[in-house]
């Protein structure tokens, strides 16, 4: 960490908790649990704020000054990352504190420096505890090839779900698992599989460069932290087509929007080629949201699941993306080529199970009419 900024310096004075250091602020995540307290935001001109059960809650104290911001934020940076931040004005990194791993983005904005800190438990949840509405996860972990896309807004728990899937695979199978992440979030223990995790900027210069190298390193399973550009998407799809099980993420809200987003990365002249690649390589799209529980004890996962069966693959290949939603609505039986789910269906299930409030479910539904139809059915 930056030598001149000690992590334990108590530089922020609150009215209720006394003087706090950045170490004290991070320890609060341990006390409340990373599933309840997900993020900490620090910026010049506002008090520090935690995201608790999805809502921002500010500490009772003065606004952060430029000097206090440096004293709170710089201890999280290595000397190398501090030099990088001073030249590039933004840096991604990670920080480990006992039972938690923190994903950190430090950046400059109009008021000065700011940081967004995401807490991740080092204990990877069991896949049974994630909240899948059906047992599609059993099919995913038994696949040998194909692309599994986990999508959702920032903070929707995508990394946690993928970590649970990969961890279960590593326990049950002797295979070679490799990842490229920005930064590394969950640290996988070496179980039955052999796992190598590489961090962008530290171990590899780019996703595409790491992917090219990885394909020569005998992987069975690949995790690409995020598909950020056309070249990375093409290489990821190629890896899925050529005998690897590939996991990756995108920031999209539903299955059809995910496919549209992928195609939008490419010029019109290449979209037919990419649709064909996607129809052949895609295995599943799982879109998820974290919904506040009705009893106020945290948040619960709601999912939309696309299983790329023959009918869906044909719709993708022919460019009839808008017709895929009807497949999600109808192909719901417990068969390997079905097990699909709309977000609206899963939300209605959670309401009927008395796990989330009806009004809360309406806020998170992508299509209110479809949600109302699901609520009227048994």
Based on secondary structure, the structural category is: alpha/beta
User: What low-confidence regions span 5 or more consecutive residues with pLDDT below 50?
Assistant: none
Which series of helices and strands comes N to C? EEHEEEHHEEEHEHEEHEHEHHEEHHHHH
What is the CATH topology of the largest domain? Answer: Rossmann fold
Spatial extent as radius of gyration: 22 Å
CATH class of the largest domain: Alpha Beta
Largest sheet: 7 strands, mixed
How many domains?
2
CA(first)-CA(last) distance = 57 Å
The total strand number stands at 15
Q: Given the C-alpha coordinates, what overall shape results?
A: globular
This entry's quaternary arrangement is single chain
Characterise the protein shown here.
With 378 residues, the chain is an alpha/beta fold. The protein folds into two domains: 110 residues, 2-Layer Sandwich (Beta-Lactamase); 250 residues, Rossmann fold, CATH 3.40.50. Helices cover 36% and strands 25% of the residues. The protein has 14 helices and 15 strands. Strands 11-10-12-13-9-14-15 form a seven-stranded mixed β-sheet, with helices on both faces. It has a six-stranded antiparallel β-sheet with strand order 5-4-3-8-7-6. Strands 1-2 form a two-stranded antiparallel sheet. A hairpin with a 5-residue loop joins β1 and β2. It is globular. It starts with 11 loop residues before the first strand and ends with a helix. The mean pLDDT is 92.
């Amino acid at each position: 960490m930056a030598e001149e900024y000690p992590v334990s310096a108590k530089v922020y004075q609150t009215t209720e908790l006394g003087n706090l250091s950045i170490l004290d602020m991070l320890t609060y995540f341990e006390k409340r649990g990373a599933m309840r307290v997900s993020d900490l935001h620090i910026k010049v001109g506002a008090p520090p704020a935690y995201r608790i059960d999805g809502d921002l809650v500010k500490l009772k104290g003065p606004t952060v000054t430029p000097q206090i911001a440096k004293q709170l934020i710089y201890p999280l940076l290595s000397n190398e990352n501090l030099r990088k931040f001073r030249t590039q004005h933004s840096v991604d990194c990670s920080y480990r504190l006992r039972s938690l791993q923190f994903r950190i983005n430090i950046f400059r904005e109009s008021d000065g420096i700011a940081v967004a800190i995401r807490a991740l438990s080092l204990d990877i949840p069991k896949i049974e505890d994630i909240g899948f509405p059906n047992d599609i996860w059993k099919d995913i972990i038994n696949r040998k090839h194909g692309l599994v896309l986990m999508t959702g807004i920032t903070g929707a728990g995508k990394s946690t779900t993928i970590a649970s899937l990969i961890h279960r695979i590593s326990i049950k199978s002797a295979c070679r698992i490799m990842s490229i992440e920005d930064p590394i979030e969950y640290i996988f223990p070496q179980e039955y599989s052999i796992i190598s995790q590489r961090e962008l900027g530290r171990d590899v210069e780019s996703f595409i460069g790491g992917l090219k190298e990885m394909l020569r390193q005998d992987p069975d399973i690949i995790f690409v932290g995020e598909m950020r550009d056309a070249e990375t998407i093409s290489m990821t799809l190629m890896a899925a087509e050529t005998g690897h099980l590939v996991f990756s993420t995108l920031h999209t809200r539903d299955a059809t929007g995910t496919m549209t987003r992928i195609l939008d990365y490419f010029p019109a002249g290449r979209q037919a080629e990419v649709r064909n690649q996607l129809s052949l390589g895609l295995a599943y799209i799982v879109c998820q949201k974290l919904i506040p529980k009705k009893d106020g004890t945290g948040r619960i996962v709601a999912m939309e699941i696309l299983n790329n069966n023959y009918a869906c693959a044909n719709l993708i290949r022919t460019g009839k993306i808008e017709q895929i939603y009807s497949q999600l609505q109808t192909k719901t039986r417990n068969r390997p080529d079905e097990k699909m789910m709309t977000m609206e269906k899963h939300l209605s299930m959670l309401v009927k199970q008395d796990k989330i409030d009806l009004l809360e479910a309406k806020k998170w539904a992508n299509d209110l009419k479809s949600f109302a139809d699901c609520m009227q059915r048994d």
